[in-house]
Write a structure and sequence with these properties.
Elements lengths: L2 E7 L5 E8 L4 H8 L8 E3 L7 H9 L3 E3 L14 H5 L3 H12 L2
Parallel strand pairs: 3-4
Antiparallel strand pairs: 1-2
Length: 103
């Protein structure tokens, strides 16, 4: 009995849109639900749970470059910006540090 929170965040880690799914639901279900509400951006950073060909094509159709690593069992390698991907959760860590520093 758990849940997953899927979020579209800005570059500062601030949530713009949220979607909650059951914990056993695949991440790309959340991606499908939030796809229409994506803002006009250059890049989308996401973890392997959001890795699906249909999602990459949908992002490409919106002019958004995907920075999502391929699943380990994927037969064809997917290119992604590794440096950009490593920084994907830095804004949320910075915000968490700011929140705890004031206490």
């Amino acid at each position: 009995m758990n849940t997953k929170l899927h979020a579209i965040c800005d570059s500062q880690g601030r949530p713009l849109n949220l979607f909650v799914t059951a914990g056993q639901v695949r991440d790309y279900i959340g991606a499908r639900a939030l796809l229409s509400s994506l803002p006009d951006v250059d890049w989308l950073l996401g973890d392997r749970g959001y890795e699906a060909d249909w999602f990459r094509k949908a992002l490409q159709g919106k002019g958004i470059r995907a920075c999502i690593p391929g699943r380990k069992q994927r037969k064809t390698k997917v290119k992604y910006d590794k440096r950009r991907y490593k920084r994907r959760n830095r804004p949320s860590r910075d915000i968490a540090a700011q929140c705890t520093a004031g206490q």
